[in-house]
Amino acid sequence: MQIEAKDGYSLAASVFDPPAGARSERPVVIASATGVRQRYYAAFAAWLAARGTRVITFDYRGIGGSRPRRLTHFDASLVDWAELDLAGVLEWAAREHGDGQTSVIGHSVGGQLLGLVPSPASIRSVVMVGSQSGDYRLWPGITERALYGALWYAVVPGVASTLGYLPGSLGIGEDLPGGVAREWAEWCRTPGYMVGGDNHARRALYKRLEAPILAFGFDDDGYAPPAAVSALLSLYENAPIERRQLSRQEAKVGHFGFFRERFRSSLWLEAAAFLERHARPVD
């Protein structure tokens, strides 16, 4: 199916319905990680739907089913993903399947973009998985910081500008639109990430979100070290936050493991319980 973004761009989407006759909890939208197709979340979405919650997944513009025939020099940015794509899907979900409010599961960049959504008052609750600031200075090791510095200052902007897009073969999942890749690199090399540099006004935008947040972080996640997770969460000053930072001894999850079915009786249950606690049935 297709859902229109705020500017009319057609986004590929899927709806996972609860069993017939079930009273659905407020709908849940899954906001994907950078370069990850919506299908990656299908098993988790189907499991959550079986518990009585309608779930909507989608591909940001330029990704998966929302990719144009020609990606080279396709006009898209991370801000577009937030203000146009995620915002459009949230509005559609609240209008078509809810009572004006939705819950959100944000994976990595999905949790970052929530602060840029124009109308965050419609968000009832949030689960974040590996969501973090991308400021490479927050990574713990000198070697890691050097590698990421080279990536954000040279490799990503250079390749994206030369080719007009960033190939997924570089290890970032799906091919990325050039504008998304360049903005991502700019944010990552800026102290303060998306609210640093000349973007201080954005910090106030993050204060608008007042929905309760359950934030999962994992010590074995090389893409989201604890300091980077903390830096992002500090922006959501007015949101009640529950932090779940799991050690390597507790679970080996990494950046992408949360949505694997082996966690259906542990991490998935935690996330579902949180969402259900902050929802009410929608007739």
SSE arrangement:
Layout: E1 2-4, E2 10-16, E3 24-31, H1 42-50, E4 53-58, H2 78-97, E5 102-107, H3 109-113, E6 123-129, H4 142-163, E7 165-166, E8 176-177, H5 178-188, H6 201-206, E9 213-218, H7 226-233, E10 241-246, H8 267-277, E11 281-282
Parallel strand pairs: 3-4, 3-5, 5-6, 6-9, 9-10
Antiparallel strand pairs: 1-2, 2-4, 3-11, 7-8
Give a brief description.
The chain has helices at 42-50, 78-97, 109-113, 142-163, 178-188, 201-206, 226-233, 267-277, and strands at residues 2-4, 10-16, 24-31, 53-58, 102-107, 123-129, 165-166, 176-177, 213-218, 241-246, 281-282.
Characterization of this structure:
This protein has 283 residues and is of the alpha/beta class. The chain has one domain (2-132, 211-282): Rossmann fold. It has eight helices and eleven strands. The chain has helices at residues 42-50, 78-97, 109-113, 142-163, 178-188, 201-206, 226-233, 267-277, and strands spanning 2-4, 10-16, 24-31, 53-58, 102-107, 123-129, 165-166, 176-177, 213-218, 241-246, 281-282. Strands 1, 2, 3, 4, 5, 6, 9, 10 and 11 form a nine-stranded mixed beta sheet that branches. The longest helix has 22 residues, at 142-163. It starts with a strand and ends with a strand.
